[in-house]
Amino acid sequence: MLFNSLKFLLLFPFIFGVYWVIPAKFNQWKKWFLILVSYLLYMNWKPAYALVLLGVTFVTYFGGLFLELGVEGEQLKVKKRKRLAWCFALLALLPLLVFKYYNFINNSITDGLAAIGLQFSLPGLNWAVPVGISFFSFQAVGYMLDVYHGRIKSERNFTDYLLFVSFFPQVASGPISKADELLPQIKTAKTFNYNQAVSGLKYLLWGMFLKVVLADRAGIYVDTVFASYDKFSGAGCALASVLYSIQIYTDFAGYSLMAVGIAKTIGFDLINNFKRPYFATSVSEFWKRWHISLTRWLTQQVYIPMGGSRCSKLRNYWNILVTFLVSGIWHGANWTFIVWGVIHGVFQIIEKALGWNKKESKGIVKVLRIVLTFAIVTVAWVIFRSPSIGDALGLIRRYATTNGTFIADIQTLLHIAIAIIPLLLFEVGKEFFPQFYEKIKSYTIVRWVVYLAVFAMIVLIGVHDGSSFIYVNF
Amino acid sequence: MKKFLLKVLLFFACIEVMDLAFGQFFSILRTHAKGGSTANCDYIANRATDDVIILGSSRATHHYVPQIIEDSLGVSCYNCGEEGNGVVLAYGRLKMLTNRYKPKLVIYEITPGYDYGTVDPNNKYLGYLRPYYDKEGISQLFDDFDDELSWLKMHSKMYQNTGRLLPDLIDNIIFRDNQKGYAPLNGVMVVKKTTNAKIENTFTIDSLKLNYVEKVIELCQSKDIPIVFMISPWFNYNSGMAMFNPAFKLCEKYGIDICSMIDEPNISTHAEFFNGANHLNHAGAIEYTKNIIPIIKNNIIASNQKNE
Q: What percent of chain A has pLDDT over 90?
């Protein structure tokens, strides 16, 4: 069930109420209640897929227990342990590989063989991908690999682990939590914290605004242009590309903020996935601000085990490229995602080679770097958004043309223009004028006016079709 | 917890007040609109008493020129067609009109996709009706075409006006001529090789929408309002009438006229009358409306005789 649906918003006070009515001393009941809610909400998408969630939980739970044997008792030899880790990781990732990548691999092989004149094909899978499979699989495998590397102890309490993997605020679209962050919170008996709950509602409101008002409005415009880009001028295509950058950010950040907000209201603190990414001055910095939980996962589970930066320059560049190739593949089974990942990797290698990733800038140079980074990221998003590389190149080629329509839908564009003002004020204030932002925030009347205005905008100019989140599909 | 719950209650109390205030604000905006879609919708919902009413999709709003019908027949006429809409909006508008008065003739331009096909999610067609949810018979459409919680959402005056803030404000500032609901299209279509391609019948029948086409007929017949179904010209139409069959069957069942001008040679073979393959431009609309004047005249005469 999606957080932006009215059904969830009606159900949530019930979840909140029951959770806090259970006394803190019955923490085990609280946990089972959350597990029940998490599984019921997950089954709302497709009941059978709860078995996938449960399967991944079992494999990684027992994987963690087995892999720890080697650390604690030195009972397993290093090679055997490594093989065992690979086996458990592959087993846990198997549903993800099958559901998400089988058709892609099958089609790619078939096309490749057809290109050299060989006719071969396997039947395709016509199954929907379980919601959030990339997120909960990575979270669970991340836990297991942390145990393998000796970063954490394995979890013995299955109830706690069950909740760790299925925790409803994050199961569909992250953030990807680390075991050492979330498991201790699950174990702690919780009492209601006023400030945390209020903060949670603010996150929920702002996340809803980003999703319903900005992302979904921008989506209407972007869909129109991307579906028939050959009718639009270069400026029109560029405008739609920029709007897609806004759409994907507000869509994903909106979801993440709602997840963080809901978790806060029931006493959990999740990692905030975004830190104003479009103010990054380099692609390297962009990845420190965008989908932070995934970047952290890839750094710890892919980049560092490959040697990270503690190796030769060339090896380091290779490690960066592979890490972002994995990032691209994680996003989806399409060449567009792979190329998107490679582009981000290549730009980071260039920045590292030139030393730009560590170079601080001020004034106009900083502004220019922000604009340049935004432009690179935006063009890469076009590839990410397009159904094929050919379509992406077709749209990018249109940038150089003047014939065609500029604006697809003036009314939608005006709605976006109005909705983007609060976002800009918030992001610019927090990024460049933090003291002023904090001072303004300290006035109760200002806060309440903002809450009510944001709510009014959600109802008045939001899109209320309960549309899905882009990242839920990953 | 007590403080938290009190503040949440206070927040919702503020929203309730804000909701009522916005309801009033939108009501003022609608009644004071100078033109555009706001004045158009408000006129249809609250003031129209025209003799001839035209219903349908963009093919209605772009193809029927009320001024020509008025000048030719001495009756008043209003075009209630709407871009990207079909029977859902048409039924709602007809319901609001017939709750108030009895038109002399209803002309319904059939567009299969919007009237009984599965083109878009059905709740998309409720947009223009949301502000008029409280009017008699309209809530039924929301029960049928929106989700099961629509009754709850529609309690909010702000929600009833969702998406209307900008158009309503603009229509209060700038005058946009409605031309009695007719929206002329300018420009002449460019004929390409693909223009003459056969149209594939890609949509499947939406039985709920088809049921509402039937309800349109039943509503007119229950109030003794003559209704005629029309199919206006399509450029070089060569795809057969299969997709219009459900409409033909309904007309046969209820004994009402259906008049197809889809391949009318005087218009459908002339690219200069078209803006696109399925939309007439202003010149085409004039030509077409002149062509159907005898049909309208005959139906009005029959209606008058029946009433006498």
A: 77
pLDDT at B34: 93
Residues B217-261: tens digit of each pLDDT? 999 999 999 999 999 999 988 877 888 999 999 999 999 999 999
Q: Could you give the CA distance from residue A281 to residue A397 in angstroms, rounded to a whole number?
A: 26
Strand partners, B79: B54
- Cβ atoms of residues A463 and A167 within 8 Å: no
Give the separation between CA B66 and CA B81, rounded to whole angstroms: 12
B151 close contact with A: CB closer than 8 A: no
Q: Taking CA atoms, what residue in A is nearest to B23?
A: A460
List the beta bridge partners of residue B280. Answer: B274
Note if A149 is an active site residue: no
> Which of these, B49, B52, B33, B53, lies nearest to B41 by C-alpha position?
B33
HSE (side-chain half, CA atoms, 13 Å) at A236: 23
Q: What is the pLDDT of residues A420-453, one digit of tens each?
A: 999 999 999 999 999 999 999 999 999 999 999 9
Whether A60 and A92 have beta carbons less than 8 Å apart is answered as: yes
Rounded Cα–Cα distance for residues A444 and B281 (Å):
57
> Shortest CA distance to A461 belongs to which of A421, A406, A408?
A421
Query: How high is the pLDDT of residue A5?
Result: 86
Residues in chain A: 474
Residue numbers in B near A6 (CB within 8 A) = 147, 149, 152-153
Closest of B68, B92, B90 to residue B287, by C-alpha = B68
Residue A118 φ/ψ, nearest 5 degrees:
-100, 130
A462 touches chain B (CB under 8 A): yes
What pLDDT score does B95 carry? 97
Q: How confident is the model at residue A127 (pLDDT cuts 50, 70, 90)?
A: confident
Three-state SS at A452: helix
The letter for the amino acid at A140 is: A
* Extended beta strands in A118-221, E state: none
Nearest CA-CA distance, residue B10 and chain A, Å: 11
pLDDT score, position B200? 56
Residue B240: CB atoms within 10 Å: 11
Query: What's the whole-model pTM score?
Result: 0.89
In this prediction, residue B256 carries a pLDDT of: 92
Residue linked to tokens 């009318």: B264
Q: What is the pLDDT of residue A129?
A: 85
pLDDT in tens, A11-22: 999 999 999 999
Identify the residue with better confidence: A121 or A308. Answer: A308
Instruction: Indicate if ipTM > 0.90.
Output: no
Q: Is B84 on the interface with A (CB under 8 A)?
A: no
A414 in B contact zone (CB under 8 Å): yes
CA A254, CA A235: separation in Å to the nearest integer?
28
Q: B18: which chain A residues are within 8 Å (Cβ-Cβ)?
A: 452, 455-456
How many Cα atoms occupy the beta-carbon half-sphere of B112 within 13 Å?
Answer: 17
Please enumerate in sequence order all residues whose Cβ is within 8 A of that of A185, keeping only pairs 6 or more positions apart, or say none.
A267, A268, A269
Q: What residues are paired with A303 via a beta bridge?
A: none
Q: Rounded to a whole number, what is the distance in Å from the CA of A462 to chain B's nearest CA?
A: 7
Question: Exposure pattern of A269-288 as b/e (b: 16+ CB <10 Å)?
Answer: ebbebbebbbbbbbbbbbbe
Q: Which residues lie closer than 8 Å to B54 by C-beta, 6 or more apart?
A: B60, B64, B66, B77, B78, B79, B80, B81, B106, B107, B108, B109, B181
pLDDT of residue B126: 93
